[in-house]
Target: IrrE N-terminal-like domain-containing protein
Amino acid sequence: MPPHVRRDAVAIASMQAARLHQQMHTPYDRPVDVFGLTQRLGLWLATQPLDHTYGFYLSEGPSAGIVLNSNHPETLQRYTCAHELGHHLLGHGSRTDDSNTVDRNSDDLALKELQAQVFAAALLMPAPLVNRTLQRLGITGVPGAPDIYAASRDMAVSYTAALWGLAQLKKLDFGLLRALEKSGAKSAKDALRGGPAVTDARADVWIVDNTDRDAVHCRVGDEIHLHLPEDLSTGHTWTIDHDTEPAPAPSALGMHLQWDGGTGLGMTPAAPAAVRPRSAGLDILTDIHQPATRPQPAAGTQDYSLFDLDSAGEDRDFDDFILPAPGIRIIVVSPHTTGEHTVRVSLRPAWDTTSEPAAQRRLLVTAGPRKTLPEQGLAPRQIERRIQELAAA
Model:
């Protein structure tokens, strides 16, 4: 394929996506509603299990529609939908797509598939949305893996799609792109959370610190990590209020603070807080103190991650641990039902959880479903449209 033909095809696809955003007055403070755009353009949208097929676009006479694989995660469904919408708007006719045409970036793609790929990236990651997202996250300069993951999460695209989108906008060079793509999204999420996954590997991760937001909009199963400054040497510790969850004893790398009833405050071995189910819509997955300076393990001994919840505290010499000191309290929650859920925490003396708190923090977690589209059948708006058509017949 002559280079100028490829360049012209890419430019046409990019301009078509920009034209659609202008026509639909797309807001750039949230992920692009590709399912809504598809339906507003009059296309039928449905899902069904498709084995190895990602999706397909059908155009017959005045009717056109897109069918997506219901087994795929929503980020991939969104990208496939944008890809098929590109086929529609670029006049490519009916198409069936799989991993070779949707989840692939190479120089040997057929021209129409290349255009659909470029259109999908430009539609889901327009420059104004990317720039606002990076600015909101405080990302300047060359983004690292955790930065790119956070941006992909906030734009509701896959990590790989975000890598290529940033590269196309010249915010990432292709050498770094290849390295980050090879390490993968899991590595990026682990770097952001500071430890291995404590729930579903597909769950998104949200970090909320003491000066950050007081509300998080996420999906069922996501991890919300609340980081609060905590100095155990003062005897004060953050505890989850009883209307949310009974508070565990404060711990630091497998150690409990223990009051002797008089003037003494010591440390005794204990494992970090166990995983406990919640009945009010939230699971409390982790509740642990992380010292600002972590003691290094002796030569030949095992190092323990902050998130080793099963056997922390075993086979270690506790004389090597430092005394209670400044650090952060890490509380990880995960919604298991949709709706609004509240986490309330208070800073109190460890020996008197009924006293007036020295500080309080409230976090509102609003959880949506893992997927917008049904497991099989027409999208909700399409069902309403079909009912109206039948009623008018």
User: Anything to note?
Assistant: Residues 16 and 376 are 30 Å apart (CA to CA). The domain at 3-124 is CATH 1.10.10.2910 (Arc Repressor Mutant, subunit A). The first helix runs from residue 3 to 24.
